[in-house]
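Dear colleague,

Thank you for sharing your sequence with our group. We've completed the structure prediction you requested, and as agreed, I am returning the results in plain text so they can be pasted directly into your records. Please verify that the sequence below matches your submission; if there's any discrepancy, let me know and we will rerun it promptly.
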Amino acid sequence: MRIFKSGAIRAITAAVSVGLIATGCASERGQDGDKADGKDTFVFAGAGDPGSLDPALASDGETFRVTRQAFEALLEHESGGSELVGGLAETWSSNPEGTVWTFNLRKGVKFHDGEAFDAAAVCANYDHWFNWKGTYQLDAVSYYWRKVMGGFAQNEDPKASPANYKSCTAKDESTAVIEVNEPSANLPGGFSLQALAIHSPKAIKEYEKQEATSKGDAITYPKYSQEAGTVAGTGPYRITKWNKGNKEVTLERFEDYWGEKAKVKNLVFRTINTEDGRRQALQAGDIDGYDLVAPADVKTLEGEGFEVPTRDVFNLFYVGMTQTANPALTKPEVRQAIAHAIDREGIVKTQLPEGGKVATQFMPDTVAGFSDAVKTYPFDTAKAKALLKKAGEEKLSIEFCYPTEVTRPYMPAPQDMFERMKADLEKAGITVTPKAMKWAPDYLDATESGSCALHMLGWTGDFNDGYNFIGTWFAKKDKQWGFDEKAVFDAVNAASKVANPSDRVEAYKKANETIMDYLPGLPISSSPPAIAFGKNVNPPNVSPLTQENFAEVSFK
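Please find the predicted structure tokens below.
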């Protein structure tokens, strides 16, 4: 048996150490932050609305920023870093094959609705997800379950991947055993995902009375996930209100929390969808912090006395090419032409903060498996035109989707970045038809369903393993990309099943080289996103995974 505690996981995942950025020691922080200056509410601004109060139905950072304060998974990441540590499980172990995972659970943990946490609760969650039906089986709804555990007890889509999840057994009250059919590079990291955080079994029974529905690309999420009152986790805060009209979610300190209590009583997440709006709100004292600071604003805010820590690079921004949405994209020369047409260096220099990098493959260089031998596609307008001519597509016209009302760690100014790429493509003779859509749920649903020929998306790593990047997109046929290339899928999946850590890293490198030879899309850049806090705030440790714990916040 392999027993894992804090620190032991790196040998298994072949992770690259990602430095943490600490914004203050515990001894420097107020121990009773809600009384330090008379304030009992911390207000933080994000760039977009959450999509759901149930993280299992989400795949976006704006949702997870909120739910992470209320829900906990079996495993978590160290504060401010990328190392796996115990969450609701104090310790965990696997058999040598990596197919049987045993979790020794914390005792004395309560859910927000008063229910006790135990092994039966863990199994109630995993079996609930495994038995989803109907709209719940769509990628746009159960994205992370499908990525980590495959399909369901009864797949309704004949093309869906078979389930890798096998069973969950409550060996006793404090021991849960989860079995999978095959070893996977997604484990144990997948056990730390917000989408697999643990809910009260009592709440789950209410969830199961409601249905998600879909019509075309439009998805209607169940009522319980769109208003406070039903969802119940074990986190340091509990969700008490979602005022969609004012774009605010309110959370209150959970006094029965098993660990260190939150330092501030109330936590409010407010949506302010422009960079200038967020900065001005902080400067005016209307909010106490905000994420995704515009590169040009970092020095301004620091000069005014605000704290603006920068996270380490752990993300990737790319242009996706959906081959089923425009037949021209099935031609390698067209994809190569688009790659050569876009000035990625210009985007990095003008749109990203200091430390931004041009991407050469679908993972940042901070992740084990990054290859120095991938095929590259340097900016060359003349070569792009020649490739289009060779493909018989000199008059190519293509739709290019981009999101509004959002800023992401990898994409600080979506419209500005889109406009630069549109201009580059048009210089190469490509006619671009813009299509702007609200980030959540319209844009996310449209891109995941394959409705956009060209589109802008990205990824911030969930845990430090190469498969969390390339396996996210290229382990199987995916509607977002609309291609079926066995060589790509085989390379990615073969790497994920290599047991020896150093051999797995080499396999990831080969997979990256195969992907970039095929060129399903264009990696653009990686960015070190900044986060800002008020002058009177003791910030939390900032996370390269953007997994800040706001229970650490206090007022000076």
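Summary note from our side: The chain has two domains: 2-270+531-555, 315-526.

Kind regards,
the structure core
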